[in-house]
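can u pls check wat happens w/ FNR
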Amino acid sequence: IMPRDTAGLTSLGPPPRRRHPLQSWAYYASAADDGWTAQQSKSIWSQVRLRPRVLRNVDGPVDLRTRIVGHESRLPFMISPAAMGKLAHKDGELCLVEGAGRVGIPYAPSNHASVAHRDLAAAARPGQTLFFQLYVHRERWRSEKQLAEAKRLGFRAVVLTVDVAIPGNRELDLRTGLDENAVALANAGKEVGQHVLAVATTAATIDASVTFDDIAWVKKASDGLPVLVKGIQCVEDALDAVAADADGLVLSNHGGRQVNTASTPLEILLELRRHAPHLLSSPSKLTIVVDGGIRRGTDVVKALCLGAHAVSLARPFMFSLVYGPDGVEKVARILEDEVVRAMKLLGVRSVEELGPEYVNARRVERL
Ligand code: FNR
């Protein structure tokens, strides 16, 4: 039973805007240019129609378990990296660790989290799965140090984000004046090496010379952690990442925050299905995660039917931070309930049973 404080959270959107400081709301909501890709990434899921089957025995519990790079998740979704949790709550990303731990799903704190990774690792419960998100630093030794530390702290995989060679054009942030003061506040007291990291320094610190060959470097520096390459947006890059020994792909346009009018995650998934179906064949060694615009249980189920092993969400969890860990947990429970309902109404009782026969994606395939 949730405390009354989260009673207003009844679905994953729209955000409780009145409860947010303007700058956290704007930073979390922000997208590139006029936000077309961010919008479409959400709305396009409704273009895929479900094909429910009836008169099947769906009495009893539904098994929602899945595996992400070898680690079990109790639910087929996880929490994406997003920077600056302290803009919305004094404990910042610690709330996400606690919420993810309560519901048994993986969480990948941002490389630019506003809480130090050693404190996040210390807050995790035994057996809890945390992944380490990396933006490759121009001074490579800093990334090497962070990767070695991540391994030591018990992070179980690296999420290598590759879609931020340079930052996108986030106009909402410019309008509301997300300034260096707010950034400094969010990162206050967080030492990373000699540096206090801040998103304002993203452009200055991210190495734009990273290539597929660096996947091997990440593996070496992290002493063999599996690598999920986040920000794959076409079949060619999916194949190159796999050839370079990626253990998983996160099909993602960074929540529409990088290049506007880029494909939606659903379209990327369909492109892989069409041109490289072997990448999606389950059970496969490769983990496919779909990230961006997931807001309903039916969205989750559609991605799973089309070959994803799991999906990942950022904004709903970031907005929930104003309610602390209870908000994070409640967002996950709402989504869990919706996934269970959708699956029972489709006539299935486990993630494994979901397949393309439960959807009609022709409208989007024609795009
Ligand atoms: C992000 N995202 C992101 N990704 C990443 O790899 N490292 C990061 O530090 C951040 N920071 C970040 C901040 C905020 C406020 C947002 C909203 C997003 C991208 C994120 O991981 C994810 O790809 C998208 O946000 C997913 O889309 P939804 O679920 O937010 O629609």
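The CA atoms of residues 162 and 211 lie 9 Å apart.
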